[in-house]
């Protein structure tokens, strides 16, 4: 295993002539929580979309476990062990919570067309195992008693938790969470933090985009700060808190000058 | 060479009416996000109304053309009011299904009203072709081309110079912003669908006297209108105009030089190839993810 | 609907020719049954993947032509002075050919059309069927064009003690169609309830999310298209050997619309939806016969489509069954 799980090298992204990301390089070591922060429009969501295959980079390299993944389709990247969560649209609407969990376990199954048509021992065993795993997953995020509800009937905070659980379902080695605490109240945010810690203990590396600074400071091993498509600082939380350029970016140039 | 020149002239005549059809469909798709399966039926409706006015009521030929176009607009406005307005919040697939249902009703309504026998519309033009050098063209076809181009110009003026035209252009480009800017969407939609339908009915009224009028005449034409719209890059009005002429030429030349039998198939093959092989150039940018 | 109720329904249908051996009734049900098989296959695409495929009749027509041509044999020029000659084959081989040819074109269309979504996908599928109709009309050497393929042999089956028997009788064809319909239903049910079906529903519900958990979009959509096309091809083969004449009109858009109406009114994305919708709209033409002109039937179909989409968009079956399946 290399020292670096994910490495982003000289990434640049242009959308319709506008520069979303100018030049970005950072690495995510295994078994850490790394946060990507920055003001709105800094390029965080774009970075997520590019790393997970939803957008193509204009230039630069993205290596996951030493192999290039830039330009691969999202499903191929997921199969390699890098899965993301979404800010919005985080569940399969019209399906029950349990079905959502089962769908998220797609990569844990192998069954193909032949197994579907002739569901003998192997296919049945796999299906039973997947169902057990789905139940366990819902247990983990405290949604076991909601299993039969339609996913869209869940409370907002519960939907967010289900979204994270689904991203983590197939035991990815790197989990990308896109603003998991957005719109949550303080107690839900605390639950969310506990969940992320729990996933880290299970051996998942986490790359986090989040606006809630308190949460970022307490969870992260390392923080990468973006502003206008460029990295302006990176390091452990204590160092970031002191960094003058970060303060300027967040509080505004005028404020810093005064 | 002479043959090519003749094809060029025929393609232009055909292309003018195709452009009318294509523009109507593109306008409706661009402004309302509706794939209008009734377009071909409105074309047939225009032809039948011309027939009714000329042959049954004994009206003047030119007056009949205008009347058919106006009736087409009225029918379009009715369809918009009854079917599309309640479906405005529905997804594009549901709207398509409703429009397919409406097309079925219209086509069979026409069949019921007029019977299956094709009708001939009498016209005041002489049946001897005008011959200019190596090229010959029937006066009626020349008239069709002139009126098509006049309608195209009129449409562009309407879009460019009038308030409703401006509102339509704004909605075409960005419906949400247009609504925020105070564009009355219901009014724009009614006008759009009525104008789109009027153009289709006008094309039918013009081509009705050239060919025959039959209840299924809208089938192929409806599909061809899709071809035109896609040739021009779905959602572009100048594109649809060019696409109309392009399909006219493709059919004329491919029909003349490659295979007469497959004349009508070329347009559809072209659509499949364009959409399947180069969709990224035609499909609008996807929504932001996340 | 419970499994028991389902098998009871099948048993009742199977017993029907013994209780009411009315040839007209059986003929009506057989035609309806062939369309129901088509609707069952369309439902896999329309209902479960959520892709509005409006070229479905292409696969039905391909199946009909493939089966008819295989059993009649043909002799065509394939360029460079070469000829492709196929001697008449047994009907079961024609049936297989229908499934393979339709499935193959399902793969091809899937590969091409699933690069795009929404209106673009719909237009490609419509045009695909239209191109095939034009080929059927104009490739006279192979298809006889508008003159139609005639004298297609009836279906034949191997029966213990009897050997090969040709199915001329109405009740025999009825049972054959019923058997294929049950097989098609079970096939779709198995697919839908498997990991594949789950992936399809996930793609329908939320494509970006489905991809993020590793579901290969194109792969699963193409798998669904191939299965769906194969079943439609089988229905086309049944049609060819039952009606025993095939002309280019099997590719008409109106037949796709008929299947779409069956699926939409019955309930897309439900196993029983196409069966219920198929029975209603498969039997309606014959209920109307004699009392209304043929145009009235299509006007009713069109109106039904409009009313269902506007007022009961999920269809009859979900409205009857409390919990959606």
TrEMBL record, chain B:
This is High-affinity branched-chain amino acid transport system permease protein LivH. GO terms for cellular component: plasma membrane. Its main location: membrane. It comes from uncultured Craurococcus sp. It comes from the Bacteria. It is a multi-pass membrane protein. It is found in: Cell membrane. The chain crosses the membrane at residues 12-35, 65-84, 96-118, 138-159, 191-213, 225-250, 262-281.
